[in-house]
Design goal:
Elements (H helix, E strand, L loop, with lengths): L9 E7 L3 E7 L5 H12 L6 E6 L7 E2 L20 E6 L22 H6 L4 H8 L8 H19 L6 E4 L1 H4 L1 E10 L8 E7 L9 E2 L2 E2 L8 E4 L4 E3 L7 H7 L1
Parallel strand pairs: 1-5
Antiparallel strand pairs: 1-2, 3-4, 3-5, 6-7, 6-12, 7-8, 8-11, 9-10
Amino acid sequence: MFFQGTASDIVVRVSSDNSIAPERRISPSWSIALLKSKMEVVTGIPPSFQRLTLHLPHNSDPIPIDSPDEENTQVASFPFQPYAELHVADLRPPSARPNFVDTSAVEKYTMPDQKYEELQDTVLAWKKRQQLGRFDPNKPNLELEKLRKMQEEIDVRGIAVGKRCRVGGAALDRRGTVRYVGLVEQIPGEGLWVGIENDEPVGKNDGSISGHRYFHCKPKHGSFIRPDRVDIGDYPVLNFLEDMEEI
């Protein structure tokens, strides 16, 4: 525990090569040796490797806090002022200093899944009580209903493998050929998808996702689109060179 101050104490700001500590109270009656022992708690620097300097607002030159007899030299011997900075330099070679910034070597605690599931004040416990997400007893039925509606959308739109299509309506007018209709486990979100081989390189894949192939096409020519964005019809391949000749 750090020193509990009295009315005669002085509040200073402690800084070091490792960190900047909050304001601390020091007593003018302390010896330099005692002050260093208190600073070890704050900075982690052993007293024998500390070099103390006092930085005053009106003085650009730091004032060394040292003495040949640190056991008997009091803090009152130096011009401490309220909220002045007391800097604690670390005299150890860099290789001997602990690294308080790099946390890669710090052992991380990972709570076992079973223990987490037993806790009652977590988001998981709240979802269980509210029967949300995968804890909803009606979830299987809702998933089946969603798939049924998507299949109806596919049937109504006439989406089938081999048919020509357009994505994004007349505004976007991305044309291609339907190459796959069905589930895509690698894409977040439940439901059915339409795999399209685009005429132009406007896609994100070659018909495969995460190593699983659904159809074959050139790189950047494959896309997976929700059925409600796909229009089936007589959409010939656009010839942009012909359009430029007409202009």
